[in-house]
Design a protein that fits this description.
Layout lengths: L1 H13 L13 E5 L5 E5 L5 E8 L2 E9 H7 L15 E6 L5 E5 L12 E7 L2 E2 L8 E4 L14 E6 L2
Parallel strand pairs: 1-10
Antiparallel strand pairs: 1-2, 3-4, 4-7, 5-6, 5-10, 7-8, 7-9
């Protein structure tokens, strides 16, 4: 029981998503770069988009911003800078409960794929529910939603060596 309380407290400390104010401001997220520096990215300044997909057989519309736009705003090298060893980089997406998934950097870069991985804050026109949001990572081309990170709390860019 004590261990579970410690884990919950640690998860709460790691949660780096901040929710917008009551006036409808967009949430933001902190991105940890290759140098270990953390940058907070306000999603309100990024282009919004909607994606219609199937979520466990149900037609669903998610709204939010592209992961690639968040990474670019955080200063993560993309596009022509992705070649050679830079292609071994991964984006580690984490939730407060410890759930983590990895995306290869090329999976999010428009120079390599047309796929859009979305940082969603709305589902079917409504804000995400507390057990899912305030942000959820949605990869619509995945056959299963196992890499759809609910309660997304952190993005980290890492080199795989």
């Amino acid at each position: 029981m004590v261990r579970n309380l410690v884990n919950v407290a640690a998860a709460a400390l790691l949660c780096t998503v901040f929710v917008g104010s009551a006036n409808g401001a967009q949430p933001g997220i902190e991105v940890v770069g290759l140098d270990g520096a953390t940058v907070r990215v306000d999603l309100g300044g990024l282009a919004r988009m909607s994606i219609v997909t199937s979520d466990r057989g149900l037609r669903t519309t998610f709204e939010g911003v592209a992961l690639r736009d968040v990474l670019a705003k955080a200063g993560v090298p993309l596009g022509d800078a992705l070649k050679g060893r830079a292609l071994s980089r991964v984006i580690l997406a984490s939730a407060p409960d410890g759930y983590q998934v990895a995306y290869a950097i090329a999976e999010v870069d428009a120079a390599f794929t047309d796929q859009v991985i979305l940082l969603a804050d709305r589902r079917d026109g409504r804000p995400l529910l507390p057990d899912t949001g305030p942000l959820q990572l949605v990869a619509t081309r995945d056959k299963r939603p196992a890499r759809w990170v609910r309660q997304l709390s952190r993005l980290e860019v890492r080199d795989i060596k």
